[in-house]
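Task 17 of the worksheet. Students: predict the tertiary structure of the chain below and write it out as structure tokens. Keep your answer in the requested format; marks are given for formatting as well as content.
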Amino acid sequence: MTGTSLDSFKSRKTLNVGGKTYTYFSLPDAEKNGLAGISRLPHSMKVVLENLLRFEDGRTVTREDILAVAKWLETRTSDHEISYRPARVLMQDFTGVPAVVDLAAMRDATAKLGADPQKINPLVPVDLVIDHSVMVDLFGTPTAFSENVELEYERNGERYEFLRWGQKAFDNFRVVPPGTGICHQVNLEYLAQTVWTKTENGETIAYPDTLVGTDSHTTMVNGLAVLGWGVGGIEAEAAMLGQPITMLIPEVVGFRMTGRINEGITATDLVLTVTEMLRKKGVVGKFVEFYGPGLDYLSLEDQATIANMAPEYGATCGFFPVDADTLAYLTTSGRDADRIALVEAYSRAQGMFRETSSPDPVFTDTLELDLTTVVPSLSGPKRPQDRVALTDAAPKFAEALKEIAGGRKDRTKLPTSKDESRFVDEGATGVHDIPEEARVPVKGADHGLADGDVVIAAITSCTNTSNPNVLVAAGLVARKARALGLNRKPWVKTSLAPGSQVVTDYLTASGLQEDLDALGFNLVGYGCTTCIGNSGPLPQAISEAITEHDLVAASVLSGNRNFEGRVNPDVRANYLASPPLVVAYAIAGSLDVNLTTDPIGTSTDGKPVYLKDIWPSNAEVAEIVRKVITPQMFTGRYSDVFKGDQMWQNIAVEGGETYGWNSSSTYVQNPPYFEGLKMEPDAVTDIKDARVLGLFLDSITTDHISPAGSFKAGTPAGKYLVERQVAPRDFNSYGARRGNHEVMMRGTFANIRIKNQMVPGVEGGFTKGPNGDVMPIYDAAMSYMKSETPLVIFAGKEYGTGSSRDWAAKGTRLLGVRAVIAQSFERIHRSNLIGMGVLPLQFADGESWQSHKIEGAESVSIEGLEGLTPRSEVIVKVVRPDGRIDEIRTLCRIDTINELDYYRHGGILHYVLRNLVAA
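Model answer:
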């Protein structure tokens, strides 16, 4: 398509690099030919503008669209809709499996319409990295990794066979097998190129590397100057099937950094500070771009750490421009020399290369951080943006404990850090001498357990395991602690789940892996584990003590998510922290210990040991990183990355254009989305006499909505599997079963911590059914479905915040929900709702379901949908049980014409399928 660009701004030209000629679309030339001032655009907006220049066709991208970007310089905001086409798509297996299931279902539907199934095929490169399926069942032993991998294959054989079929059946589709790494780190270390190339019509075209991913932390690669962000699986499928992503020209908030972080401060401390600041600023749906002299002192891995958590601070992306450090990282990670030369030449030619002396771009708004003010930090106990300075962690936990414990009656004393007896240590590996009334016994153990005890300490997740500085720091903490005779507390489940095999190489080469092993931080797997709820079960005696005595147990993890119910069902206080702090808390064993003032243990010679005694200097960390990390580590690990181990290669695959669905499979089933599909969609009809399925407060996350983590036999999903002779020990997780809609719709709104205000005081996925009885949300939805009664949901602010979980929308639609009426929506979830044919409506400012006194027993009608237009006013009629009728004026959050087309077709996949078949 780039070869047919109208090029109305005469920007097409050639670039010679190392004896090779590349065609590209020059921003400086476009500036000379009608786009005055665009050299002042933020770097991220230059990437968007180049995309429009390259794809200008007079239909999906017009001259007016391009001019609107230049006009942005005057207004710094825009309500102009553009069509954006990323170069590629990235998936992880949890969200990737249902995406491939949908593609397989689309092939079936295409065949039933009498068309060629091969019309359903990715049109842009797609990489799927299997990284979300490994669970921390075994830990603290040298064989933990191999045993966890064996269990992973045993549990996920059906899914992996399906993905192997997909790799064979679809063009432009590659699979990185299990046991390789986290998709974002594999992307950063290998897949991303910063400048992409494609041969078309006999010429090689160079353009910025861009992507969308089915994981919200796709933004991590923004640290490598690659523009990308998370989308739902639904939107990603459309993108890889050739559909542009429609978006409003974004606002871009500039985040200026000055100074340099102080001795002992980590990138994790920095990113938690940045997340807190940007959440307070309010950047939902906006680009964030980092600039200023402080960038000179951040490593590229530090930048990637900050970019990773864009979903946590609410932004679409957290972009860093190309600079000298980008080139250095591409070199260190073993990228091809010709590619590195192209990245530098292209970026300089386009005015996209950041120098210390570069003038500041124009931004919509700005904020500033002096890096010298960053202090050691954690974040918790429930949200990533709730930063707590390490100095305040213990007293802040004591405050949080009172709220979390609530009305607990079995014990009245809540231990606090002021209890000096807590810090009397009975030896290097002993337990704190907590008063008897504040400790509970653990069956078969010589220690008790108390509120705030850290039962999970996990070095995990893409946020930090891509950053060798914090991983080496963690290893050095372990080394220094080991030398003094310290160890983890016996109630702590420890784990190390690196983001790539390269991490193992440099930890082994430095000898630090041996030190981590000695403290129980043995390798448990390469993948996203604790951060997504794959923490595995706690030891039974620990779990029983927590449950029987209603303890508020804690986790400390180097992840990016700590929402309620996410990490482990037994753990109610979850804190994000740097890898070295994770090790320190494993040694301390409790959040009630103030690591800045209290000893965390006793050395072999009987002396108290403080955190400062085992904390490494920046110079120590830098020396090891510089000494052990080599390009050969990267090239060696990624030389045959798609091959996989022997277990992967031994998976038998049945070929075919369409998939041979197994009706008895509990992992992969043909979804019902395309049943009865016709070439022309039915007209949109009003929603009449709908009932309320849920009333929710602010910050309902996609973790609350979408099935995630483990589940028990008594849940609707558990009952479904038990009926099919699946033993509870083999349930696996919701994420692993995302390819089976029957499991997933039963788990929608089933989070153990969700609170439906229709049943006040009840925690978990419950509501009132047609007769007013309290029952699981799934059961109520099925009762309404039998009578063909539509459903609606009311919610507060930031509805759908969190990961880009497409099942949060898919499950909502399969339960029969036709509309969600909220005070505000998170960007990705709003888009996904429309992609599944669910109408998002927004209350007027200052209004809410509470202000309209909605209690859940009302019936709701939404009229005038046949004439719906983007962002139009929609009247919601609420009929009270006594017959009174109120009208609520809401804003239709279908924001663009393309989104309206998707809604009218019943969803984006229906729209795409009909267009592809008609082509």
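Marker's comment: The chain is about 35% helix and 15% strand. The chain has four domains: 2-84, 88-373, 378-629, 687-918.
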